C-alpha cells in the first residue's frame, strides 16, 4: 500500500507533466505571412508628376547640408518636377533671382552678400570648404571664376525637382536631372541635359547610374543650401 508521502510525490509529478502533454499534443498555431518583393519599385510613367511617397530623403535638418546623390528612381521618394519659376515659393524665387543676377554680373564676389545673408553659407564642396566664394572660383576652369558662374546660371535656369514636400527636409533642387532616370529622358529633356554636359559626360553618368554634375538646392524659406558637383 503506497504511503501518503509516495502518493503526494506521484500526484505532484503527474500534475507537472500535464502541461507538457497538452503542449505536445496541440497543433502548431498558424501565423499569416506575406511575401514582399523589395526589388520592385513603382516608377512613374510620365513627368512632370508626383512620385510615390516614402521616407524623407534626408534623415534630419542637419543633413540638408549633405546633397547626396541617390540613384533613380531616388528610392521612391515623393518628387514633383517643374519648369515655371513663378510657381516657386516666394522665398525660393527671391534667392534664385538674386543668384542669377550675381552670376550674370560676371563677378564671383557678387555672390558673397547673398551667401552671407544666411545663417550659414551654402555648401560648395564636400571636403575642406573654407571661403565659399573662393572655393567656387578655384573650381572654375578660368582664373576669374566666370565659367563657374555660367554653370550656376545654366543650372538655375533649368527645370527643378521639388522633394520631401511638407516635411522639415523639403527642398527645391536644380537641375531636375538629378532626380530623373537618365534612360527615361525624352528628346527635349536630353537637349536640356546637353546644355550642361557633353555626350562624353553623359556616358560617364550612365556608367555611374545618375546625373552627377553641378546641382543647387534651396529650402522653401529661401535658404541657399548647396551648389556642388560630384557624388
Would you kindly provide a written description of the structure presented here, covering whatever features stand out?
- By secondary structure, the chain is α+β, with helices and mostly antiparallel strands.
- The chain has one domain (61-228).
- It has seven helices and five strands, in the order αβααααββααββ.
- Helix 2 packs antiparallel against helix 5.
- The termini are far apart.
Portion of residues in helices?
A: 25-40%
DSSP helical segment count: 7
Determine the structural class based on helices, strands and strand pairing: alpha+beta
Number of domains: 1
Based on Cα principal axes, name the global outline.
globular
How many beta strands in the DSSP annotation? 5
- Please indicate the percent range of residues in DSSP E strands (runs of 2 or more): 5-15%
Summarize the structure.
The chain has 231 residues and is an alpha+beta fold.
Write the layout of secondary structure elements.
Layout (H helix, E strand, L loop, with lengths): L3 H22 L53 E4 L7 H16 L6 H5 L15 H8 L6 H11 L3 E4 L7 E4 L12 H8 L4 H10 L6 E4 L5 E5 L3
Antiparallel strand pairs: 1-2, 2-3, 3-4, 4-5
Keywords:
231 residues, alpha+beta, five-stranded antiparallel sheet, 7 helices, 5 strands, 35% helix, disordered N terminus
Amino acid at each position: 500500500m503506497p504511503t501518503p508521502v509516495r502518493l503526494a510525490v506521484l500526484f505532484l509529478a503527474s500534475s507537472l507533466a500535464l502541461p507538457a502533454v497538452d503542449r505536445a499534443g496541440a497543433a502548431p498555431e498558424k501565423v499569416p505571412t506575406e511575401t514582399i518583393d523589395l526589388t520592385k519599385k513603382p516608377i512613374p510613367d510620365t513627368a512632370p508628376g508626383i512620385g510615390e511617397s516614402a521616407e524623407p530623403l534626408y534623415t534630419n535638418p542637419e543633413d540638408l547640408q549633405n546633397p547626396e546623390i541617390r540613384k533613380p528612381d531616388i528610392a521612391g521618394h515623393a518628387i514633383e518636377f517643374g519648369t515655371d519659376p513663378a510657381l516657386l515659393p516666394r522665398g525660393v524665387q527671391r534667392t534664385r533671382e538674386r543668384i542669377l543676377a550675381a552670376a550674370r554680373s560676371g563677378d564671383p564676389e557678387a555672390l558673397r552678400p547673398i551667401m552671407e545673408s544666411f545663417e550659414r553659407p551654402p555648401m560648395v564642396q564636400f571636403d575642406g570648404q573654407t571661403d565659399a566664394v573662393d572655393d567656387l572660383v578655384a573650381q572654375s576652369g578660368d582664373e576669374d571664376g566666370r565659367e563657374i558662374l555660367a554653370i550656376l546660371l545654366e543650372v538655375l535656369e533649368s527645370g527643378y525637382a521639388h522633394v520631401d514636400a511638407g516635411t522639415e527636409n523639403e527642398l527645391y533642387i536644380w537641375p531636375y536631372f538629378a532626380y530623373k532616370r537618365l534612360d527615361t529622358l525624352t528628346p527635349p529633356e536630353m537637349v536640356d541635359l546637353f546644355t550642361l554636359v557633353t555626350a562624353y559626360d553623359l556616358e560617364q553618368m550612365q556608367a555611374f547610374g545618375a546625373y552627377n554634375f553641378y546641382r543647387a538646392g534651396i529650402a522653401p524659406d529661401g535658404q541657399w543650401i548647396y551648389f556642388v558637383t560630384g557624388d
